[in-house]
Amino acid sequence: LFHAPDVCEAKKIAFSVSYDEMAMEVATTEQTRDPYIFIKAGEMIQLLSKGVPLEDAARALEDEVFSEIVPVNLLCSNEKTFERRRKRLSNPKILRAIELLTKCSVYLSGKVACIIGSYKGLNDAKDIVTSCFENIHPVFEIRKLIVKKKLEKDCVEGSWERFIPQPKKTHSKQKVSRRPRGGMPADIKPRKEDLQRETGEYYLRGENIRRDEERE
User: Fold this and answer.
1) Alpha-carbon span 158 to 66, nearest angstrom
2) Residue 154 in contact with residue 147, Cβ under 8 Å?
3) Where are the domains positioned within the chain?
């Protein structure tokens, strides 16, 4: 933060830090000519508060550079799932591939993801980040983005769905058929005695008739 005032001074805005209150402030000066630079300076402060290095956070002051802070913890149901998917995205090779394809830098800090780059690349990088925390591996989204960029160069017309790879589901839940509660099952096989009663063969034997009379 020692060089932050120099960075802001180059953009004609004032920067101050209060270590007692743990707060950072920006303000316009008499030399400020661009009113929107005040909003971009506020974005730089938010990035610094999330642990983004000053060199990268200062990029938010440029005209064609945008930033966004995505609360990725809201995309997961529990803490263990969040940590597992966050570890999946924090792979340096994955982050480097995202940076090369989208021209955007992704920083994971706590329960948020900070993205800095161009407007179009920002949307592509955000899709990869959110898809990762929705249980879609970032490798699949990176492959999709590579194919889309190749199709844009070749100027392919029509739908691109047949060219874009789709992730395959590796885990399939098996449905367990359960008998409905209440009542008797419909597929009860009749006993031998019941079949003989229907045909009348049961009553041809005298001992069976006496047995029924004793029961009554």
Assistant:
1) 31
2) no
3) 1-62, 64-154
Specify the CATH architecture of the domain 1-62: 2-Layer Sandwich (3.30)
Where would I find the beta strands (DSSP E) of 72-168?
105-109, 112-117
DSSP structural state of residue 24: E
Beta-sheet strand order (sheet of 66-70): 66-70, 112-117, 105-109
Give whole-number Cα distances, 58 to 8, 39, 66, 189, in Å. Answer: 8, 13, 11, 80
CA distances from 187 to 18, 50, 193 (A): 79, 65, 18
pLDDT of residue 183: 61
* Residue in 114, 131, 144, 95 with CA at minimum distance from that of residue 51: 114
Residue position matching structure tokens 């190749």:
150
Paired residues of 108 in beta bridges: 113
Domains 1-62 and 64-154 share a fold: yes
Residue 35's pLDDT is 82
Q: Quick check: 8 pLDDT over 80? A: yes
Q: Indicate if the pLDDT at residue 181 is higher than 70.
A: no
Q: What is the CATH number of domain 64-154?
A: 3.30.1370.10
Q: What is the pLDDT of residues 98-122, one digit of tens each?
A: 999 899 999 998 889 999 998 888 9
Q: What is the pLDDT of residues 186-205, one digit of tens each?
A: 667 777 777 777 776 666 66
Angle between helices 79-89 and 92-102 (to 10 degrees): 60
Predicted TM-score (pTM) of this structure: 0.66
